[in-house]
Amino acid sequence: MELDPRTRERSMYRTLTGTVVPRPIGWVSTTGPDGADNLAPYSFFTVASVDPPVLLFSSGDRPGRPEDLSDTARNARETGEFVVNVVTEPFAEAMSETSATLEPGTSEFDHAGVERAASTAVEPPRVAGIEAAYECRLHDTVDVGSNTLVLGEVVHGHLSDDLLTDEGKVDVDEVAAVGRLAGSGYCWTRGRFRMERPD
Ligand SMILES: Cc1cc2nc3c(=O)[nH]c(=O)nc-3n(C[C@H](O)[C@H](O)[C@H](O)COP(=O)(O)O)c2cc1C
């Protein structure tokens, strides 16, 4: 099949999310201006910059209509702070639970039975027990078509000792990240192999 998105009546969502795989899942916690804690998964998520360290996630809502932004993107924009928790195997089911649409006033932390841990440099709590969490201050938001990119500079990181070598470096073999495929499809990151880069 040849694809020309300009002549395509149906959305590209299924095509893109079904082929740009696997995607890591940033589980983003925010605290609203009203003090309510919010937690939601975002698989349109990656590293945007190394120096300064900036992470980004993409919220799929209409740009220029703040009332339609996801709670996460709106809270990040209004408070300037969020925490990205990297989803690993023990947290997969709870992560999925937090993608539910809840009544206003119900926190996804409480709905999914996820314990909060206090953050160090920002107000929103992180997920207690998660192996990698990054506290972020808003760097920028960028409207791109149907989505809003939310970029945050990492101002503090929490890494479990379980992920570290004796020298204090991250050992990726210990990071049991879960990947998003499409729809209800997910993958482990257990089937690993090594390949040296050419000189
Ligand atoms: C694994 C997973 C990944 C998701 N990734 C995204 C994403 O990248 N962008 C997005 O807009 N919604 C994504 N969603 C849907 C949101 O998590 C969902 O709409 C959630 O209710 C938004 O919550 P909020 O309004 O509290 O931010 C994802 C859902 C799941 C289960």
Keywords:
4 helices, seven-stranded antiparallel β-sheet, 199 residues, three-stranded antiparallel β-sheet, Pnp Oxidase, Chain A, 13% helix, alpha+beta
Layout of secondary structure:
Layout: H1 13-19, E1 23-24, E2 26-31, E3 37-42, E4 45-49, E5 54-59, H2 71-79, E6 81-86, H3 92-97, H4 108-111, E7 116-117, E8 126-127, E9 132-144, E10 147-159, E11 179-180, E12 186-187
Antiparallel strand pairs: 1-11, 2-3, 2-6, 4-5, 5-10, 6-9, 7-8, 9-10, 11-12
Bound molecules: flavin mononucleotide.
Flavin mononucleotide (FMN) binds at residues 25, 38, 40-44, 58-60, 70-72, 96, 99, 101, 180.
What's a quick, concise take on this entry?
The protein has helices at residues 13-19, 71-79, 92-97, 108-111; strands at residues 23-24, 26-31, 37-42, 45-49, 54-59, 81-86, 116-117, 126-127, 132-144, 147-159, 179-180, 186-187.
CATH-derived architecture: Roll
Determine Rg (CA atoms, Å): 17 Å
Runs with pLDDT <50, length 5+? none
* SSE topology string: HEEEEEHEHHEEEEEE
- The largest sheet has its strands arranged as 3-2-6-9-10-5-4
User: What coarse outline follows from CA principal-axis ratios?
Assistant: globular
Question: How is this structure best described in words?
Answer:
The chain is built from 4 helices and 12 strands. It is globular. It is α+β, with helices and mostly antiparallel strands and 199 residues long. Strand 4 (45-49) and strand 5 (54-59) form a beta hairpin. The site of flavin mononucleotide has 17 residues, from strand 3, strand 5 and helix 2.
